[in-house]
Design a protein that fits this description.
CATH architecture of the largest domain: 3-Layer(aba) Sandwich
Number of strands: 11
Largest sheet: 11 strands, mixed
Low-confidence stretches: none
Strand content: 25-35%
Distance between the termini: 46 Å
Radius of gyration: 18 Å
CATH topology of the largest domain: Aminopeptidase
CATH superfamily of the largest domain: Gcn5-related N-acetyltransferase (GNAT)
Order of helices and strands: HHEEEHEHEEHHEEEHEHE
Number of domains: 2
Shape: globular
Mean pLDDT: 90
Structural class: alpha+beta
Length: 259
Amino acid sequence: MLERIQQASAVAGPHMAFAFQKVFGHRVPPGGAILPSGGVKLVTGEPHPFGNFAIGQADDEVEAIARELAATGQPSCVIFADGLRSEAEQAARQNGFAHEETMPAMAVEIDSLAPCRLPEGYHFERFEPGDDAEDWAAAFAIGYELPQCVADVFSPLAVPIDAAEDADVQFFRVSHEGRTVAVSALIRGHGVAGIYCVATVPEHRRCGLGAFATAEPLRAARKQGYRIGVLQSSSMGHAVYRGLGFEDVGSLSMLIRIP
């Protein structure tokens, strides 16, 4: 088990850029681009850091990206999966960015995931063709506090739904009284299963929905032969993921610019 977790540490961080590439690979949104390093950027002009952001894999891109995002005059965010050299971070600071958070890259042996229970009255399901994509995107935007146009880019509104059991990109949701109240996405590649877009609307938090929406897609991936799950955690979700059995295997640097 330890050996597999150590192997996962090499891809847990870079998998984030890979996942965004998978989404952009279906339809690069207006203002979006895939970077030379393999990372991605999205500039919407929305007054929100994640409305104008870049995820890169090479710190020699920092200065050019920081300069471009600063020129928008809007709040911006830069995330680098391999960490930053001090020179790269200084280049970003000169363009008005400040180090906001170190995001843990985490991994888990799927067979060792802690059991989860869905509260009574809630229903968990994989998103299927024909389901209400706007409902999923709205829950993601509310739960993650994103501009709706940004949430739409990473939702079933933009990514074609493949119903195959081994689809590389899969969406999941928890519903309550017919409304989507928690969401997640599974993106597979590099030999691991990655969990993204985990969000719960405020009035349904603190009852285990996020943990369930994280663990159950990974259990489905295990049936397809995947043994390791990876994710990138915020400080808010770190304790939840640790409780499920995830371990810290690396980190990502996030820098924010607020004009």
